[in-house]
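>> Question from a student workshop board

For tomorrow's exercise we were told to take the sequence and the ligand below, predict the bound structure, and bring the output to class. My setup keeps failing. Could a helper post the expected result so I can at least see what it should look like? The ligand is guanosine-5'-diphosphate.
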Amino acid sequence: PSKDHELLVRKLQDDIIELLYSTENQLNSLKKASGNSESSLNEVVQQLKSQLQAALLDSEELGGLESSWREKEAKELQQLVQNRINYVQNPKDCSTAKQLVCNLNKGCGFGCQIHHLAYCFMVAYGTQRTLIIESKSWRYNPEGWESVFLPASETCTTAGQPQAPWTGEASSASHRVINLPIIDGVMSRPPYLPLGIPEDLSERLLRLHGNPSVWWVGQFMRYLLRPQPWLETEINGAIQGIGSNEPIVGIQVRRTDKVGTEAAYHGVEEYMKHVDDWFDKYNLELVKSKSNQKVVRRVYIASDDPTVLADARKKYPHYEFVSDTSISKSASLKSRYTKASLRGVVVDIFTLAKCNYLVCTFSSQVCRVAYELMQTLHPDASRKFHSLDDVYYYGGQTAHEQVAVLDHEPRPGTQEIQLKVGDVIGIAGNHWDGYSKGTNRRTHQTGLYPSYKTIEKFPLVKYPTYPQAMS
Ligand code: GDP
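>> Workshop helper replied:
Here is what the output should look like for this input. Compare the format with yours to find the bug.
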């Protein structure tokens, strides 16, 4: 299938997903407005939802997410990019190799730290430098990065001297060793930032994958998060625990210090609503394929709140809940910056990435890392998630923009904005009710617009193509 065909089928899927959101939302507000909580409207909601789920399933089948060409292409592209990364990370002569030094001392959680590293990695790769990870004072493990993950390089692990601070791509070019500050403080921003995708692979990526920006970040995550044998044993144990044949949905419930500061509280019911929807759709799939399989509804729970598991078990007795043992021990705030906590969060991230579907709040970096890694384990897992709050983003990213594919006239008395086909909109968020919020770059108006009237705009970046790295 051509790239245009793939884009069209994906647009169809998104249209149906948005129609599901808006149908449910509009009928629920009608119900509220009329003070009518009777079953008749509930039934209408249920009927329309089933119908839309059937349509979504058809469109997914049409999309062929697991089709053999896609699996082959995903494997090939992944191999190509991993080879390129491997090439720049393993220079023959470390004493003359250009380096980019990244300090792992950012005072934040693991998800935040690994995003810091991945940003450094993308800039290093973009400027043809070997990434050197400086992890002496790592809060999660004073023994350093390499006692947990494989070293980022086999031939070049110590930073050369002197280290010049990053001042911009052109002005830093002549220094052999540079040190990159955190993304929030970087002056003369390098072009090698998410959500950009490599120009030379863009045609293939846009055909293959529903969100090439995340796929690209995922490639750097994959390389960085190659576990040491002891950690691999832990991860494999957890993954065996969820099995590989039976479907399972992963949920990540981020609470404790995040609630009220960076994110809102969400009850377990909010997550489970989307889990229910996913399993309902899965059941339809079985019926269509005339399978007699009886589905056990299984959920993997990751959280920093030890009460979530018991709460879920109590409220959803017909579900089977699986969780890592560390959930009550070391994920919570009290003992967070320890090796045990690190083990716990990494095991959760890898297990979530393996699940068939992911429900979480994308305001949490833990869940975004899982979603990024997920893209490297499935041919295209871009639509295998629901976020209760933000759309996917990468802290410090270049503007996230969309393009209008339909005109829109704002209805009077609403906060809607006008769209003309071709307008570029900077998206702030999807409200998951049929509408998104953003700023029209042409009119400078900020407000709501129907999500289905836009498509994503993926920025192309001229990354080096490393022809020396044979695939
Ligand atoms: P964010 O604060 O959720 O955006 O993500 P960070 O990774 O930056 O900081 C949260 C930290 O809390 C993580 O690094 C973990 O140490 C811990 N944590 C949060 N959520 C989970 C979870 O689902 N499982 C485990 N094991 N730890 C978590």
